[in-house]
Design brief:
The structure is a homotrimer of 430-residue chains. With 430 residues, the first copy, chain A, is of the alpha/beta class. In chain A, helix 15 links the parallel strand 9 and strand 10. In chain A, helix 1 crosses helix 17. Chains in contact: A-B, A-C, B-C.
């Protein structure tokens, strides 16, 4: 009976609109223009590079080489869930059938895809087949937000630069450009960040977002202490990790204070190790299984009136996150990020969240995609796990001595809460 | 066939007596006197506070306000296993049906519950419906143990104060009161602790118990070193974390030596971060996913003739605990504690323990409850997972190339070992 | 349908040859000569010692005492997967039926087993019943490799001594003996290690192997720095942990450079805590749930042209390993080691690997056995989990919106890749 239930739940979920609350999709180029935009997604360059290393494989050698390099090695990764994403895109949007990918005629695939993508209504068909209602973006502070279709796209302010890269001149200049203010003191910095927030708020930003290093420690940091650090950076001094950590703690507070001021959530994606793999092609980042949320106590307590949707990269932080969201009123478990975004780990975390976190706080999923085509297969993967968890819950509820039978309608209502109501209420004001 | 097997196993387990080897139930007020005693359990104040934060929600505003605050927000946490515990209590003990909780008439619920609780035989019916045979308590060193019904209640000496709070005058005074000795030196401290143990042993204590901070490090500490620390504390000096850790290592040895002397186990509950959530209502504690058992090597090796039942708070310590209990003769995996006490995490740890830990060492479960009403729903939750694991094992045994079919009687025998025989043998001397 | 599919897959897998890519089997005594060789396996001394501690239980008291001590306490560990391994050996190779183990007549068992083991063709029957094609050994640098049956046995160079024990005179002397060179400088050390590699390469070594401490940090270390450490060790100085870590980092590079030179993989088994349990009988080691792969960045990046099959001991490093193998072209997830070698943890890691690591990189399993009899039951345990995972994948593929049906032949092909093709390609050159 489980498979039948799961299928029924899946069918119903298919008809729900998608609120994709975190992507890297650009409003100006939301849809792929060439197959290279799709197979160039870091998942595929990573997997093919990992399956069969080729020293001559580089990004930037042009779309033809990229497509050739990836498509030639796709047969080596057919077991992966990522492979299935691409197959779905081929079938649903490009008229490419599975066996055609492995035929090796990458030139023909490139051409056919390009033709399809150039057809009028291509983007609309991607949106409508997937029922995509809203795409949240990852915007840099100096992004131009003026011409965005705000019915579809929602700006979100990415603040990694403010927190982790203010010792780099390029990032300081970006902040200056974005805010129209020189940054020579901590007061300048605070005013510049505030100006950026004001601009984003005026354009309907959903939230501020950051990806953090493992085991970040937040704490109260005086502006004077931060100013000392900034001055050393401005003088060209190379900062050590401790000093960079002090700045990060200070800047997290500045960002959180601005979230409080403009009444927007602060979305955390916790625990990435950047640049770990030197020969990565399109992907050098990993995570650390040693990752604690304890360092966020100050942030979460001090900014008790700011809402923090939180994703974690390490599976080992999964229960710590779920427990923290059960306890802390201002924490929300958000999606299944990157290395945690595969069936085994989604299944476990989803069950934990459904069992111990108040229903209204659970944010189902986001695609993290760079092009809209990926939204459908990724959400399908998640929805399959959600349908499995709910079908199991229905069956368990029939026989569990503590439960009463969960109806199909009630199971579906849980799905709607996670997929639609909760993201709307947290990010769209209701 | 799995559901049928599980049901049969559950039915048989229902008829077993409950030995609840760790609770916070007081012998003098084991049963709720008002609904506030039940919905005031920290699980509910936490979940409702987390689901919808209200600045006016405080403990201590009286039972009516507490009931109102919690019951009003119960509809926000209906997905949780904790909600189901409360529903079971309503149905089994209070005559309150599920839909009545969500009707919002908290005043009526409060009144009805109070009436039921005041009926003669209420407590007995809670005990008999749940088949509760024994309730182990959490006693402070100065608790009066004289008038306890020792057929039902078993005293257990909580030693957190001895180990983590001897720098607080109130805790030192408590030890002095409990032992009838002044504590001005490490020799005094050791004598006072011994006196407390003697008194508890005379009253049939089952074990000493402690909840520890993450990554505690035990080691040999000379009495002279401890005396230095104690003198600083007596002089009112504020101790830093390193010094507090030195004291803790010393005190762990003192406690273990007394367990050896009176031949009682030392029950460890490992890895809680106290006071993490500043705005918690009835619950501020979390855990750290970074938690190692390596720091306990000294304790476990040195006190090789003391038995250590061990619970861990972090899921990440689950296999480390199971492996340690497979290796170390004096370690026993004990229950599923707090944040680890939900179906996903119970299911995983239970299977691990059943596969690699000698059967006679596995202590199934304890409720950790503050009132006896919670014992039944919590044990039911555990028994469902145990029945699932055993039914699966029966099915697997039919087809696994390394196994022979596990009979129903053998599966049930495993359940009895975990639920009855092992706790009796470890804690009741037979 | 799942059980039927699983059975069909299991039957097909049973007919595959076994390439057991890591064992402690010695070419000269691959098969047990007495029951003590089998029940003396550390798993059984550990479990029986843990189940019921006896101060008089020591290794080295002779085979009779060993058999008695273990067999008397086997009834205490019948729930464990390890018990089932031994039962299978009894049934398949020794004609001992399950109920006979618990009859307590250990003397009779000892005698019967010895008789069977002494029969001509005993070893061959173990090999052929299990379809063992190749046994990879764990060879010390000074092992005599001349007379090995290289159709069956493959030498592998264990380098723990080079890396972690060069401050011990016995280990330096072993290296000198193995290489025929005095070791008085870092240049000597490098030349001696190279000489050992040359000799092993001439005998067809498969790889170099090491088991590492938790959280090892690799880095570039100059020969001069290493020389300073070596001189202090030669002078009899006791080295602290930091200095030992510096040497280890240096030596890991020396070993990796030799792997590069002779074009052989470097097999890592990550994260063991040696000597944790003081009263262990045949086993004192545990692991630390705190274990990060971050410290291996230097090794993996710098020796990008060396292949690193990697096992981890802690479950908490499971996803970090899978993600690293998805990213890094020169990392291969290898087997399920020791405390991770039980159904719950195999099942999880296997699914993760099948979902995110390129198929051709996944090394299924190795037995880690000391006698060939253990290969069959251990591989059966693994194959049952693999068959489960593949049967589930077949069923899921029928209904998953991103998948197309996985055929039986395709599922079996995945099994063959993991069990046969991948180990052959990585370790046998094709």
């Amino acid at each position: 009976m489980l498979p039948e239930l799961r299928q029924r739940l899946l069918r119903e979920m298919d008809s729900l609109p998608i609120y994709d609350i975190h992507t890297h999709i650009s409003a100006g180029s939301a849809f792929a223009k060439t197959l290279a935009d799709l197979v160039g997604y870091h998942y595929y360059t990573e997997l093919t590079n990992s399956a069969e290393y080729r020293p001559d494989f580089h990004l930037g050698a042009g779309p033809e080489d990229l497509v050739r390099q990836v498509v030639e090695r796709l047969p080596l990764v057919t077991n992966t869930v990522q492979y299935d994403w691409l197959m779905v895109i081929g079938e649903e949007f490009l008229g490419i059938r599975r066996h055609e990918w492995s035929a090796g005629d990458w030139g023909q695939l490139l051409e056919r895809a390009q033709r399809t993508m150039a057809e009028p209504g291509y983007g609309e068909s991607v949106l409508s087949k997937a029922r995509i209602r809203r795409i949240y973006m990852t915007n840099q502070p100096d992004d131009n937000l003026a011409c965005i279709d705000r019915g579809l796209f929602v700006p979100c302010l990415r603040v990694d630069g403010f927190v982790f890269e203010m010792d780099k001149q390029a990032e300081r200049q970006r902040l200056e450009r974005a805010s129209g203010r020189a940054v020579a003191s901590s007061a300048d910095y605070e005013a510049a960040v505030a100006a950026v927030f004001d601009r984003f708020a005026a354009y309907g930003m959903a939230y501020a977002a950051i990806s953090t290093i493992p085991n970040l420690r937040t704490r109260s940091v005086a502006s004077e202490e931060a100013e000392g650090i900034l001055r050393r950076a401005l003088a060209g001094e190379r900062l050590d990790d401790v000093t960079r950590g002090d700045w990060a703690a200070y800047a997290m507070n500045v960002v959180a204070a601005n979230c409080r001021r403009v009444r927007k959530p602060f979305h955390l994606m916790v625990g990435v190790r950047r640049g770990a793999y030197a020969r990565g092609v399109g992907g050098q980042d990993l995570f650390d299984s040693l990752n604690s949320l304890a360092g966020y106590d100050h942030l979460f307590n001090e900014y008790w009136d700011v809402r923090f949707p939180v994703s974690v990269l390490s599976d080992t932080t999964g229960l710590e996150l779920a427990a923290s969201c059960w306890m802390r009123h201002n924490l929300y478990p958000s999606g299944h990020w990157w290395y945690g975004n595969s069936p085994t780990d989604i299944a476990r975390e989803l069950r934990r969240r459904l069992d111990i976190v108040p229903l209204g706080k659970i944010i189902a999923y986001y695609s993290d995609a760079y092009h809209a085509e990926y939204i459908l297969p990724k959400f399908r993967m998640y929805r399959y796990e959600l349908a499995s968890a709910l079908a199991e819950r229905m069956e368990r509820s029939e026989e569990h001595p503590n439960m009463v039978p969960l109806s199909f309608a009630e199971a579906l209502d849980i799905a709607e809460a996670l997929l639609v109501r909760n993201p709307c209420s947290l990010f769209e004001g209701g």
